[in-house]
Design a protein that fits this description.
The protein is an alpha/beta fold and about 300 residues long. The chain has a single domain, classed as Rossmann fold. It contains ten helices and ten strands. A six-stranded mixed sheet has the order 2-7-1-8-9-10, with helices on both faces. A two-stranded antiparallel sheet has the order 3-6. The chain has a two-stranded antiparallel ribbon with strand order 4-5. Helix 1 packs across helix 3 and helix 8 packs across helix 9. The radius of gyration is 19 Å and the shape is globular.
Length: about 300
């Protein structure tokens, strides 16, 4: 996979409604990654688990979809999973908000996913036979609830991609939780109970899910201000597209409060994951890749 077929890129860009620049980036930056991944998969006697991590707007979901398309086209059975599809149901989160902390009504942070279900699906995918059909949940964001039907993964995959905004992240040291970092934490979590709960749940994700990943890829945003701006651009595009239904799109104040739920762990990820990732793609303020780091030595790849 030293080169990626132009028609595959153009078809993907068109289907995903991406700017042409994405295709140029894919051809410039992704072939070495694809070549490495192909070698790892070919030398493994079990499904290879790859984590794809990055802040909101970094392009992790698009990259996972692109790699899935690319490898599937080359005969590599690929299962692409998103943390987002494993959110707890709306009723479960409402109940948790009432019993544990009101901020848990908002999906996104550790503790708002069904980790048992994710662990079960990963285990089933890893040990299924070639004639198996594994159910994968689908979360409906328009309803803010788990979808009524699942999608199916047929046959044992050679490659499992797991993408999410805090995939691979380890919990923070307890002392780092003492001081609030934004208005949401100071006004709505003055005691620190919410952030301690989130950090404790992150330990569960790390021990049960992330520790089982074979490799981690991280898309590094320049800073949290860029992440906030990217998310704001997404909302403005949604507002323009919604027209008379724009009332359903977040206002600036709503967006600021929403993003504040993720600020602590986003900053923690930007500090720690660049050094822990096996592959690192560095982004500029315009979401363009400007550098790549590959930390898997050639001898390690050939020894697999």
């Amino acid at each position: 996979m030293h080169e990626i077929p132009e028609n595959l890129i153009s078809e993907f860009v068109a289907e995903q409604r991406l700017p042409p620049a994405y295709g140029e980036q894919a051809q410039a930056w992704f072939p070495p990654l694809a070549w490495r991944l192909r070698g790892i998969v070919e030398r493994s006697d079990k499904p290879v688990r790859i984590g794809i991590s990055g802040a909101q707007g970094s392009g992790k979901s698009t990259l996972a979809a692109f790699l899935s398309r690319l490898f599937t086209s080359r005969g590599v059975r690929t299962a692409a999973l998103s943390l987002d599809d494993f959110y707890l149901t709306r009723a479960q989160r409402r109940k948790m908000a009432e019993s544990t902390h009101p901020l848990l009504a908002t999906r996104g942070v550790p503790g708002t996913h069904d980790v048992d279900l994710l662990a079960d699906v990963l285990d089933e995918l890893s040990h299924s036979g070639n004639d198996a059909s594994v159910a994968i949940p689908v979360f409906d964001k328009s309803r803010d609830d788990r979808g009524e039907s699942n999608r199916r993964q047929h046959g044992r995959p050679d490659l499992i991609l797991l993408e999410g905004w805090f995939v691979g992240l380890a919990p923070q040291p307890p002392d780092d939780l003492a001081a609030p970092i934004n208005l949401l934490e100071s006004e709505e979590d003055a005691s620190g109970a919410w952030r301690r709960f989130v950090n404790e749940r992150l330990t569960d994700y790390h021990d049960r899910i992330f520790s089982g990943l074979d490799h981690l890829l991280f898309l590094q945003a320049p800073d949290f201000a860029s992440v906030y701006r990217w998310r704001g651009l997404q909302e403005r595009k949604l507002r323009e597209k919604a027209g008379r239904h724009a009332g359903k799109v977040m206002s600036e104040a709503q967006l600021q409060r929403f993003i504040s739920h993720f600020e602590r762990l986003t900053r923690h990820a930007l500090r720690t994951l660049p050094e822990r990732a096996d592959w690192l793609f560095v982004l500029d303020e315009e979401q363009r890749i400007v550098a790549r780091v590959d930390r898997i030595p050639d001898q390690a790849l050939s020894a697999r």
